[in-house]
Amino acid sequence: MVDDDELFSSHRTKEDMDINGELVPPDGLCWISVFSCLLLACSYVGSLYVWRSDLPRDHPTVIKRRFTSVLIVSALSPAFVWTWKEFTGVRPTPSLLALMGIRFEGLIPAVILPLLLTMVLFLGPLTQLAMDCPWSFLDGLRVALDPWFWSLCAGDMRWLRNQVVAPLTEELVFRACMLPMLVPCAGPALAVITCPLFFGVAHFHHVIELLRFRQGTISGIFLSAVFQFSYTAVFGAYTAFIFIRTGHLIGPVMCHSFCNYMGFPAVSAALDHPHRTTVLACYLLGVGLFFLLLFPLTEPAYYSPPTPVCTLAPRVTSLCSS
To answer: Which letter does DSSP use for residue 25 in this model?
Structure first.
């Protein structure tokens, strides 16, 4: 058997190591990495505003134009990572696509386990949704397997934005591209904390549209923005954690799409629910099980270790090892 230290050291040259066998980041790496991430975040958000329009963000025309913009930026985002790699002299053994979580090894667990973990966290809202749904389980299953239902979804621009385009492009840009640039400088644990800050700040652009269309008071809009920043930053830390632990992009994308569908848990509605005790018990059970299963279900051994992004870490950490 090969232990974790041997697995990680196999991806590093002697010139990259200090006397303790730890990876030595090139001079100025942190500044270059942060600047690259900031430039990438600004490019993503800026692409939403290259089109001038007096229409609201949910108008189909606006959504289609923004699809074009963010898809172009997302397609070019690997070039940011490649340029960063060439400029800093960081020479990872895994390919660029593997560093960005696009690989076949461990793909099936990466599709199933992170989504299952996220569904456990939402046990309360899912129970509440099941109780309030007028359909039976078999009716819901028939709808889910009906191609006509999915064709209707695909024709809904807001559904495509929330369930497909936004999760795919945001996770590609803010996780798959930024984490490989942050991990060599900050290490995996600190990268999980700092990476979501770019993601959270990027969502402040919603304030512009709310103010522009006067959708609420100024204080209410900014309070909403602070809440959204906090929520998206915490969520971003979670998907960054999944990306580093699994080394796959698909897991964060699936979790992002699921959370967009569920929305923020309606705790106030749960407190007023006719079956309040059962619903609240499921909320508490879901949160407890989530923290209990957080590390076991993201065990790197399930996903063909070591995960590529972890080979860039200055030292072996518990976040990257089994």
So the answer is: P
280-303 pLDDT per residue, tens: 999 999 999 999 999 999 999 999
Per-residue pLDDT tens for 28-82? 788 999 999 999 998 998 888 888 877 888 899 999 999 999 999 999 999 999 9
Which of these is catalytic: 11, 170, 171, 248?
170
Q: How many CB atoms lie within 10 A of CB 5?
A: 12
Measured distance CA(195)–CA(280) in Å, rounded: 32
Residue 86 is a catalytic residue: no
- pTM of this prediction? 0.87
Q: Please, are residues 211 and 224 in contact by the beta-carbon 8 Å criterion?
A: no
Report whether 7 contacts 247 (CB < 8 A): no
Beta-strand runs (E) in 182-322: none
Q: Which of the following is catalytic: 203, 205, 206, 275?
A: 203
Catalytic residue status for 11: no
Cα(239)–Cα(167) distance, rounded to whole angstroms? 11
